[in-house]
UniProtKB/TrEMBL annotation:
Transmembrane segments: none annotated. It comes from Dongia mobilis. This is Homoserine dehydrogenase. One of its GO terms (biological process) is threonine biosynthetic process. NADP(+) binds at residues 15-22.
Amino acid sequence: MAADRKSAPLRIGLAGIGTVGAGVIEVLRENADIISKHCPRPILVTAVSARDRGRDRGIDLSGIAWVDDAAALAARDDVDVVVEVIGGSEGKAKEVVEKAIAAGKHVVTANKALLAHHGTALALAAEEAEVALAYEAAVAGGIPVIKAMREGLAANRITRVYGILNGTCNYILTQMRETGREFADVLEEAQKLGYAEADPSFDVDGIDAAHKLSILTSVAFGCAVDFAGVRISGIRNVSAMDIAYAEELGFRIKLLGLARQTPGGIEQRVHACMVPAASTIAKVDGVYNAVVTSGNFVGENIAIGRGAGRGPTASAVVADLMDIARDRILPAFSAPAATLARAVQAPVGQRVGSYYLRLMVVDKPGVIAEIAGVMRDENVSLESMIQRGRSPDEPVPLVFTTHETTEAAIARVAARLDEIKSVLEPAHLLPIETLE
Ligand SMILES: NC(=O)c1ccc[n+]([C@@H]2O[C@H](COP(=O)([O-])OP(=O)(O)OC[C@H]3O[C@@H](n4cnc5c(N)ncnc54)[C@H](O)[C@@H]3O)[C@@H](O)[C@H]2O)c1
Ligand SMILES: N[C@@H](CCO)C(=O)O
Ligand code: NA
């Protein structure tokens, strides 16, 4: 019996046949020979479910059972693993995963929103049911970052993890820099390429990166997933002008997710920031993601790869299926779920670092002195200033970089500058991350 099970097919119920789901079928078919070399059990999709049965997806579904209600996949005798690639933190996706676990089926998902909101509870349920909850595709797409952190780096105390965690934003920022095009144009392109979330504001407002960061934080620091503890802002306010000034100042603008252990607790932040143009992360462009992990013995470890799209994401889903077929099942978030306590979150406003500040001002004598006075009052020291172009009729940009200061001090500066009549727009503020 045991020998039979070891070579019997691992049967998949696929919930969702969109970008990722169709990719999973494609990888399993096209790479069947290579997969069988690494894996003692064939992996077969036996049942599928999606919203629209009649849609032409360009893949042959003959011989695969169609299920109208994806949650019914859990009850099928011909399904050992439910692959959830529907998306969304609530609704059908959650029901599918919960029912699968309750029915004793393994789960593989690409759904970071679901895990960010319900990851710890689902991990607990999966452990109690003695089934896998695997989600490599959910964080940094095709990069095996969960595997690296949970296995390859497992002997380390992790002190910091950060990276480019959203392919759509990185694609948009790269295109804006390379072509000077505006944000909205490029977003449409990322959607067409299958990179963006169903609601692309999740990408551009930093929510998707925060979902992923909260999962990484849990794996890295052995705490409960705490999405509410992430401070989030996105890239909507990054303009072509800031991208050009970044270049001039020796930086690139990236949307980063950063988590680290501080004396006051765990700090989790997602925001656009300037990074040194010469740094490795600055050169990670397009749909590529990067995850940089610091461990107390290994030092710094960098993984780079495609973070979104059909092929890379499906590659990660299938790798998880292969682990299940090999009986390699680990606790979802590295530590056993029952030990994942809610970590203290670091207090807000305590970031210490430099800032980029762009103001749009009326070009008249005394403006700079007034601005410098505010900085002096708040004890914020200037590192550089760029003023170019004179125009009595139009707002002109004034760009500053500061020496090290606190987030709270720079926020007070921005609020006070907003009250100056000759400052025409709220300050465009970006942290400068030296990544040291
Ligand atoms: N596209 C990517 O690059 C990528 C990368 C990593 C993770 N993900 C995640 O993978 C998941 C799927 O993303 P996608 O890009 O493939 O989305 P998609 O919109 O292309 O596909 C979603 C699929 O789910 C089906 N679906 C929707 N509601 C359903 C319901 N109630 N019952 C049954 N089926 C339903 C749709 O019919 C469709 O087949 C999401 O969680 C997403 O965040 C996507
Ligand atoms: N929308 C996501 C998909 C990958 O998780 C991104 O652009 O990174
Ligand atoms: Na991954």
